[in-house]
Automatic annotation (TrEMBL):
Residues 6-76 form the J domain. This is J domain-containing protein. Residues 79-157 are annotated as: Disordered. Residues 145-157 have a biased composition (Low complexity). Residues 79-90 have a biased composition (Polar residues). Residues 110-121, 128-139 have a biased composition (Pro residues). It holds the Pfam family DnaJ. InterPro entries: DjlA_DnaK_co-chaperone, DnaJ_domain, J_dom_sf.
């Protein structure tokens, strides 16, 4: 079954729905179809539910933006007919049953459309100036943590450039990022964590061809049981420099002063064992904090997770053993943490926990883990 492009129909709300109704509908649909909730389903259903989740998120963000909603309503008014024809059935007809998402009866406006008013010539100011525009659209609401400038038409955008808009929904705070180097990705952080500062991004002239880092200062937040059931972070990579494959690094640092999530996405060299992927796009979800392995610490505790698309033979010892002493192999989570915190002490862990193949939304990745304290 094809998916609708009508955002009201996607969320199953009336065209006159207020923000509260839109938020309620989105929350229900998002929680039902979030990839964390579909791990037990077949690959085809996982793909469908993931598509539904993305459509619902887009619909939610557009309908809560007054300008975007007005544009959508204008387009809808030009395309929606007073009633469905025999070949244009509503997404869900009463009495047909079914539990598939998006099966909602689209609600038309209660009043029939009025005929257009006769043309009246506009009134102009006696001195030739145009009349005052009292209904000019307001600029879109910009999140205080948004940074950068969106790209304009080809040839008008200065180089280098980047754009990092931040948005929120009932379950996550989201950062989208794109820049001149070819990066385009999205980081979604669960409402378990409250963002307290604008994310730290690479300086404008920083070379990001090889990797890119985003640091987010957070604090623990009160949240519902439904949010608690979700993974801490979702990464959605859409494009990379040179369409290369990528690996993911997550460092969660906790001190007496606060907490920080540091996400790094790095391109991988093209080799026989790791050829250029058919598409650089991929999504992943995980929990960032393994601090439960260190219930007590003096100055800080830190969890470092790395996710590779192939077996990370460079970062494990003989027969998959856990690297236990310096110098730690390059590309291992221990090597990075030692470079940041020289006196760090690592928690001992089994080789099965240190290097493990894990899955999410029908995909597989190899995860490396290191947890330590100072």
């Amino acid at each position: 079954m094809s998916f609708p492009t009508n955002h009201y129909q996607i969320l199953g709300v009336d065209i006159q729905a207020d923000d509260a109704a839109i938020k309620k509908a989105y929350k229900k649909l998002a929680l039902e179809n979030h990839p964390d909730k579909t791990l037990h389903l077949s690959a085809a259903l996982v793909e469908r539910r993931t598509k539904i989740f993305k459509l619902a998120t887009t619909a939610y963000e557009i309908l809560l933006d007054p300008i975007q909603r007005a544009k959508h309503d204008k387009t809808l008014a030009q395309s929606v007919r007073p009633s469905y024809t025999k070949t244009e059935q509503p997404f869900h007809q009463p009495g047909t049953g079914g539990t598939e998402p998006f099966q909602h009866q689209y609600q038309q406006r209660p009043n029939p459309p009025k005929p257009p008013e006769p043309f009246r010539p506009p009134k102009f100011h006696p001195f030739g100036a145009p009349p005052p525009n009292t209904s000019a659209p307001q600029p879109p609401r910009r999140h205080p943590f948004t940074s950068g400038t969106p790209p304009g038409p080809i040839g008008t955008t200065p180089s280098p450039w980047f754009y990092a808009p931040v948005s929120e929904n009932p379950i996550r705070t989201n950062l989208s990022f794109l820049n001149h180097a070819g990066w385009h990705f999205r980081i979604e952080v669960s409402k378990k964590y409250k963002w307290i500062l604008r994310p730290v991004l690479p300086l404008l002239n920083t070379d990001t061809e090889g990797d890119i880092m985003v640091r987010i200062s957070v604090q623990r937040n009160t949240y519902s049981a439904t949010v608690n059931a979700l993974k801490d972070v979702v990464i959605d990579v859409k494009a990379t420099p040179g369409n290369k494959g990528t690996a993911l690094s997550s460092i969660f640092k906790e001190t007496r002063q606060g907490m920080e999530i540091c996400i790094t996405i790095g391109t991988l060299p093209v080799t026989a064992a790791a050829p250029l992927p058919p598409t650089p796009a991929w999504s992943w979800s995980f929990d960032v904090d393994l601090g439960f392995l260190i219930p007590f610490y003096k100055e800080l505790r830190v969890s470092h997770l790395m996710f590779y698309p192939h077996y990370p033979s460079h970062a494990v010892g003989k027969d998959g053993a856990v690297p236990a002493k310096k110098p730690f192999p390059m590309g291992s989570p221990q090597a990075e943490l030692v470079s940041l915190f020289e006196e760090i002490q690592f928690v001992a862990m089994s080789k099965g926990f240190y290097c493990e193949e894990v899955g999410w939304a029908g995909r597989k990745r190899w995860r490396l883990a290191a947890v330590g304290s100072v």
